[in-house]
Amino acid sequence: MLLLLLLLMLLVMLLVLLVVVLMVAVTVGGSVFQIILMKFAVHLLPLIYAATVYTCRVVPMVKRVIV
């Protein structure tokens, strides 16, 4: 139960971190950085998708357990 909440927090923090990195990349605008980021993003997209689906499935379960 507590573990699920911790996992959700971790996922949210990872997404926030990703957004921050993307913003920095856009601000810096370094071509090398963008290339690395694009390669990274290709690998991250399925992970983000899986995390979103997982969160959408787990959140109602957690709510039901709490209520």
UniProtKB/TrEMBL annotation:
UniProt name for this protein: Uncharacterized protein
Upper classification of the source organism reads: Eukaryota, Metazoa, Ecdysozoa, Arthropoda, Hexapoda
- What keywords would UniProt list here? Membrane, Transmembrane, Transmembrane helix
* Species: Anopheles darlingi
Going by the entry's taxonomy, the superkingdom of the source organism is recorded as Eukaryota
Regions that span the bilayer: 40-59
